[in-house]
């Protein structure tokens, strides 16, 4: 389980949402032994909620609005409630982490008693599949003794950031176990150069890498690279 993080996704103008969250947190923290000394206090939270409710009543319903000053006051009260909820969320987060340490399951169980909700946890990417469309890109923009390799991200990549890098493997035979890593790149292209005095035949593979480690090795691409 990843570390549980509290999320407050309410805008400062979502008055009803702020009031509902404030009431829920105040009710769940009252007498909660997991959070014996909430800061800000439950009283401060309840006061902030009450102030927003009162300001909404003064501002009035649609079609019968109050003055601009009333609206400014409502926005100020809502901002105070939002900041109070965020400060309490930080207190809950810190208190739960102190009590649970690196036991994220326990931490989550403690936090959930506070009335706050968690941020959506990211689904682990897992082992990456092989890259797509790996090929030797023929172009006049490189020298005769160079080879440009191009590919596309793996099929099962859920977002671009899930691929941390690509390892470029090169060998003189089509046996992958005999190949060596010659570079690492975050791009989906790579240019190699033959600085020798004779043409060579090189075999290439691409290995995508993420937090789960090395992904599936690509198909091999062989290229005859002239000398300088």
Architecture overview:
The chain has 228 residues and is α+β, with helices and mostly antiparallel strands. The protein has 2 domains: 15-114; 132-225, Sandwich (Immunoglobulin-like). 32% of the residues lie in helices and 21% in strands. The protein has 4 helices and 8 strands, in the order H-H-H-H-E-E-E-E-E-E-E-E. The chain has helices at residues 15-29, 42-59, 68-100, 104-111; strands at residues 132-137, 146-152, 165-171, 180-185, 189-193, 200-210, 213-214, 221-225. The strands form 2 sheets. Strands 3, 4, 6, 7 and 8 form a 5-stranded antiparallel beta sheet that branches. A 3-stranded antiparallel beta sheet has the order 1-2-5, with no helix packed on it. Strand 3 and strand 4 form a beta hairpin. Helix 3 runs antiparallel to helix 4. The longest helix has 33 residues, at 68-100. 23% of the residues are buried. The mean pLDDT is 91.
Write a compact overview of the structure shown:
By secondary structure, the protein is of the alpha+beta class. It has helices at residues 15-29, 42-59, 68-100, 104-111; strands at residues 132-137, 146-152, 165-171, 180-185, 189-193, 200-210, 213-214, 221-225.
């Amino acid at each position: 389980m990843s570390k549980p993080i509290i999320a407050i996704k309410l805008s400062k103008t979502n008055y009803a949402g702020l009031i509902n969250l404030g009431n829920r947190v105040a009710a769940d923290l009252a007498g909660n032994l997991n959070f014996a000394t909430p800061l800000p206090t439950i009283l401060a939270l309840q006061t902030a909620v009450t102030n927003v409710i009162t300001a909404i009543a003064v501002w009035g319903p649609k079609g019968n609005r109050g003055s601009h000053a009333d609206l400014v006051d409502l926005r100020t009260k809502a901002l105070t409630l939002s900041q109070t909820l965020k400060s309490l969320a930080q207190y809950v987060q810190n208190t739960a982490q102190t009590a649970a340490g690196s036991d994220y399951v326990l931490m989550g169980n403690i936090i959930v008693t506070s009335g706050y909700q968690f941020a959506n946890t990211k689904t682990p990417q897992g082992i990456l599949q092989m890259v797509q469309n790996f090929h030797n890109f023929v172009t006049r923009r490189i020298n005769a003794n160079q080879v440009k390799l191009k590919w596309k991200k793996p099929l099962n990549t859920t977002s671009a950031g899930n691929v941390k890098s690509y390892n470029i493997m090169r060998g003189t035979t089509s046996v992958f176990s005999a190949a060596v890593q010659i570079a690492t790149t975050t791009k989906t292209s790579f240019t190699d150069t033959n600085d020798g005095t004779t043409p060579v035949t090189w075999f290439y593979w691409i290995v995508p890498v993420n937090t789960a480690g090395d992904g599936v090795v690509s198909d091999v691409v062989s290229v005859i690279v002239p000398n300088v």
